Amino acid sequence: MSNRGIFIDRKSPVPLHRQLESALRAAILSGTLLPGERVLSSRDLQTHLGLGRNTVLDALDQLTAEGYLVTRRGVGTFVAPGVQKLTKPRPRSRTVKITPSETALSFLSSHVLAQTVDRVAPFRPGVPAFDAFPSRQFKRSFDVAAWTPQLLDYTGALGHEPLRAAIARRLRQTRGIVCAPGQVLITAGAQFAFSLIAQVMLNGHDTAIVEDPGYSNIRATLQASGANVVPATVDECGIKVASFQRRRAKLVYITPAHQYPTGAVLSLERRFALLDWAARHDAWIVEDDYDSEFVYTDHVQPALQGLDDAERVIYVGTFSKVLSPAIRVAYIVVPRSLCHVFEAAQEVVGGAPSTILQAALATFMENGDLGRHITKMRKKYDERRHLVSVALAELAGSNFHVDDSRTGLHLVAHLPESIRDADFTKRAAARGIVAPALSSYFYGKPTMNGVVIGYAATPASQIKSAVAALVSAL
Questions:
Q1: Which residue in 319, 352, 367, 451 has the most C-beta neighbors within 10 A?
Q2: β-strands 251-254, 284-288: how paired?
Q3: 248 close to 207: Cβ distance less than 8 angstroms
Q4: Domains of the chain by range and CATH?
Q5: pTM of this prediction?
Q6: CA distance 395 to 397
Q7: Which residues contact 457 (CB under 8 A, 6 or more apart)?
Q8: Phi/psi-derived region of residue 319, left when phi > 0, alpha when psi is between -120 and 50, beta in every other case
């Protein structure tokens, strides 16, 4: 028995059933097979090792007789629970912690190793309400989807055509997007979409402009591609286009509908200025429209892509915010001049999600279930947003200044200068609350002091107690 599995030596004079018996016994005594663990069935062992059925049964029967194994009729064979008392603890080998040198890691590796998130804590930003997922309707979509031989085959590089058509139709009607289904490319999540865009659009040392503060993962993705990443300041009207008006760059990444993390909505004046800059400098705009479905006012800004006559905008949307991150489906609306390039790149990297999942999503959209779910969640999130704001005002008083653009899935609470946001975030984490520091989103020197509060995933009944826990960190 090796630490990699069970092996049989057919040149050995030891009978095969004795070899199997010894290998399994050694695995149990060494702790490789643990008490209560299921052992491969006799049929699986027979197939895996190429042994006769009687050979395998003889070995299992002997170990059962010795008390190492127990059989549960109709369930399987397991390592006996009491065998742990019969064996000595497995000796612990001295382990040496190996820390890779900085030169051995890419920028992306260093970045992701630093990310730690409590995935069940209140106020975690960027996630929807898991307690309100439309399970029944979504399951029905799987049942209704046509399980044809074509559906079970590899899909085209762009993705499942009915889903692309449904996405294009919804984007035209809700976001003012100008596109045909042939311009929609389905990817396995938004992060993969950004990675694909970086691979297609950037050569080493090309300049890419990002918002500052901004989404840190996009900076890591762009830098991992070899790009020279340049930060551009964000204020209450969004990214300051004037700060790079005369600068040449290959692309700029923005979140115009709800800037992440500040929540600023890009003004119409700056939208046109940005489009003019891209046209003049032969540059591309990556528009991340991650949570634009949730606006709680009557003033909804159209997507930047719909204002773009020169077709310089690469639009990215996702189902992670409207349904669940577990769906892992996003999409890129590609300018017509780049469609063949993106399709070829997707063919090589293979970043499309399950075709069966895509078909279910298409059915979910075509039945109107997605639209009804978004309408329902818009009301629910607005209620949760309001409850958080009221509770902060009631429990924290002037210690927090809430900056709420009444859109998206999070708001920003600014702290007094006397309280360092990074320290406050640590104290909140100790109380079981996720409230990322605004300073952590800056590429350069932080100019804001506060925390990001995601209200969408916290049930209304838990909001006041969660806010109380957050305020106690003051």
A1: 451
A2: parallel
A3: yes
A4: 16-86 (1.10.10.10), 135-369 (3.40.640.10), 372-472 (3.90.1150.10)
A5: 0.80
A6: 6
A7: 122, 124, 127, 128, 129, 130, 131
A8: alpha
Compute, in degrees rounded to 10, the torsion defined by CA atoms 301, 306, 309, 310.
100
Per residue, the 3-state secondary structure of 275-314, as one string, reads HHHHHHHCCEEEEECCCCCCECCCCCCCCHHHHCCCCCEE
The DSSP annotation for 28-65 comes to HHHTSSPTTPEEPPHHHHHHHHT--HHHHHHHHHHHHH
Q: At CA 255, angle to CA 407 and CA 349, rounded to 5?
A: 125
pLDDT tens sequence across 388-411: 999 999 999 888 999 888 999 999
| Tokens at 393, concatenated | 């005002």
Sheet strand arrangement including 69-72: 38-39, 76-79, 69-72
Structure tokens at 68: 């190492």
CA distance 294 to 297: 9
How confident is the model at residue 93, as a pLDDT? Answer: 46
Q: What is the mean pLDDT of residues 175-200?
A: 96
**How confident is residue 131, by pLDDT bands cut at 50, 70 and 90?**
very high
Per-residue pLDDT tens over the stretch 425-443: 999 999 999 999 999 999 9
Q: What is the pLDDT of residues 60-112, one digit of tens each?
A: 999 888 888 998 888 889 999 877 555 554 444 444 455 555 555 555 555 54
